[in-house]
Specification:
Blueprint: E1 2-10, H1 12-16, H2 21-34, E2 38-44, E3 51-57, H3 60-72, E4 76-83, H4 86-94
Antiparallel strand pairs: 1-3, 1-4, 2-3
Length: 97
Amino acid sequence: MNTYITLMKLTDQGIKTVKDAPKRAETGIKAFEKMGGKVHGFYAVLGDYDYISIGEAPNDEVATAFSLALGSLGNVRTTSLRAFTLKEFTEIVKKVP
């Protein structure tokens, strides 16, 4: 499975209902798992983003569909990053001419 890091920022709607955010996070994790993904960690963070999650999905299509579904609820805006393990990165670098 591919690894993804998702950066999330609360929208105006999301901050107005922030007390519901922990439950929304749990619901989101369950929805991602139903799509075939696995969440390794979800964190509330300080800085430019409000939350990050680290997880795996079977492919880019599943990861993208989940991000679109999450964004369509209106509570967060997402930025998704495809992450490569050191082993994967090593194989990529071997292909550099």
